[in-house]
Amino acid sequence: MLQSFKMALKSIWGNKMRSFLTMLGIIIGVASVIILVSIVNGYMSYMTESFASMGVNQITVNYRSLPSRTIDVEEFYEFYEENQDLFQGMTPSVSVSATVKHGSDTMDATTVGGYSEDQLSIKGYELSCGRNLLYSDMASRQKVAVVGAYVASELFGSPEKALGEKIKLNGDNYTVVGVVEQQTESAADFDDGCTDDFVWIPYSRAAKIARNAVISNYTFTSYDINDTDACTAALEEFLYSKMKNDDLYSVTAMSSLMDTLNDQIAMMSMMLGGIAGISLLVAGVGVMNIMLVSVTERTREIGIRKALGAKKRVILQQFVIEAAVTSTIGGLAGILLGSLASVGIGMLMGIDAPPTVSAVLVSFSVSVGIGLVFGYMPASRAAGLNPIDALRSE
Amino acid sequence: MEKNTSAGKIPLIQLKDIYKIYQMGDEEVRASDGISLTIEKGEFVAIVGKSGSGKSTLMNIIGALDVPTEGEYLLDGQDVSDMTDNQLAQIRNTMIGFVFQQYNLLPKLNLLENVELPLLYAGMDPWDRRERAMESLERVGLKEKWRNFPKQLSGGQQQRVSIARALAGNPSLILADEPTGALDSKTGREVLDFLKKLNREGNTIVMITHDSSIALEAERVVRIIDGRINFDGDVKEYAAII
């Protein structure tokens, strides 16, 4: 056994080019499986994270009122209060088309909207200074505003300086009571229309500006992402009881978008896995090919060895060990290359793509398995050769 | 012949009515057509015949590389005619030393490793193996070159290495197939002299050749024509008829 092992090593070393070509197939196969799986995994978790930061527990409601049938804000609040166990927060959402002004400064791209005091927690933001909107602001339709960091820094220089200052919306003055922490990470993105370019005012005030008696958009949040189905069902039941027609409203859970995304990613990774699997198989066929060539090329050697008294088992051992050692070395090199490449490509793509243990294990064992199986077939042919025929070959 | 007088002892080779029949399409080829031959220990026999005469088939059977279709082959008393592949491998390994026309050394192994091969397959431990192989190389005068590879040697030297390999296992029979076929006449002469020397030291040698002048170097000549023995006798009688 030890002798066969030594002989196999000697033969691999003695035929460096051939052994390297065999290994190359395995290396490419293993590395591509690891790279593909790691990149897809890394991308998947990146997508999931960015979706989660957008608020996966959000459910948005949109309905169209009829003159005969309508739901006012109080009814939504009643429903919300009755289902406190399901919902964490709720806000009406009124978009206002208004330009933000301060003195001679004008901001065109700023998003202005009317919300309840829950908007801050629904978005998952924190205040950098000042106070949030209050329930009392809603009730009394106060002219107060919570602004994004970009608005504060553009109009007043810093969040602290913005507090207590007035901004003008459609001719009315609003007092800035709070500034939200900066959300955009890079300075390059901190520009007109960015995530931080917004003004929130009480929804009751906004409805008045928009001259809307009815507020038709709401955002709810569930306590847990797993409760979103129950929340959606409760909302649909409530809306149907009021509207009696399910064409008049829509309820959309962010988590269902996420499910769709996950389905797509799963399909993509299966497809890529298939491609990677095929490349492994091709690597295996490559090993078999080289082993077959090697047996043919070495028929004379096998003949000599058999004439000198090598038994069938010994020849078989030598060739199988050769295949095993070749594919193991190739597999290890493939793991190394694949791991380095997936980390490198991940860095280029700006995602975290560490090689997964399962990809490493599966690709390695499959490649070594293929190497053994495809190495065994020509090896058993070699071992079965008649020494006379083998000696006669040139 | 004083060597053939050991009547009580078992002959080394006993072939009894050996047939080797190949089926070539519809045609039946009788490569051995009823050959009976006895060779005693210590003889130097040349088997001579033209190509296609069946001498190679006979060599394969004597060398335990092949089994006859019919007939009995006793090698040192053991019936080899219906052995399995593994048993034949064992016989070749322990009882027969081959010397081939093309030397048949493994090019990727050095001289020592080449000579060690039969000992390796015999399962000898590394130190004994090395010692025996070195002794064997010393006998053919190539001990100093043990690290060299076959390609670095001349044809005559390579043939001496293959003789060393044949001797290493201390076999009962040295089977030489056209041992001078690939050599010029001078080095061929040296190899023949070396075989003669081995014979004088007590080794049994069977040499296969197509060349009658080389057959004359042996003590006894067996001529094969069309798968049958046409002549079997002392080298002097053979010299008289050619």
UniProtKB/TrEMBL annotation, chain A:
Belongs to the ABC-4 integral membrane protein family. InterPro entries: ABC3_permease_C, MacB_PCD, Macrolide_Exporter_MacB. Its main location: membrane. Residues 19-236 form the MacB-like periplasmic core domain. This is ABC transporter permease. It comes from Enterocloster hominis. Keywords: Cell membrane, Membrane, Transmembrane, Transmembrane helix. It is found in: Cell membrane. The chain crosses the membrane at residues 20-44, 265-293, 314-337, 357-377. It comes from the Bacteria. The keyword Translocase does not apply. Residues 275-387 form the ABC3 transporter permease C-terminal domain. It is a multi-pass membrane protein.
Automatic annotation (TrEMBL), chain B:
PANTHER family: ABC TRANSPORTER ABCH.1, IMPORT ATP-BINDING PROTEIN. Keywords: ATP-binding, Nucleotide-binding, Transport. Residues 13-242 form the ABC transporter domain. It holds the Pfam family ABC_tran. InterPro entries: AAA+_ATPase, ABC_transporter-like_ATP-bd, ABC_transporter-like_CS, ABC_transpr_LolD-like, MacB-like_ATP-bd, P-loop_NTPase. It comes from Enterocloster hominis. GO terms for molecular function: ATP binding. This is ABC transporter ATP-binding protein.
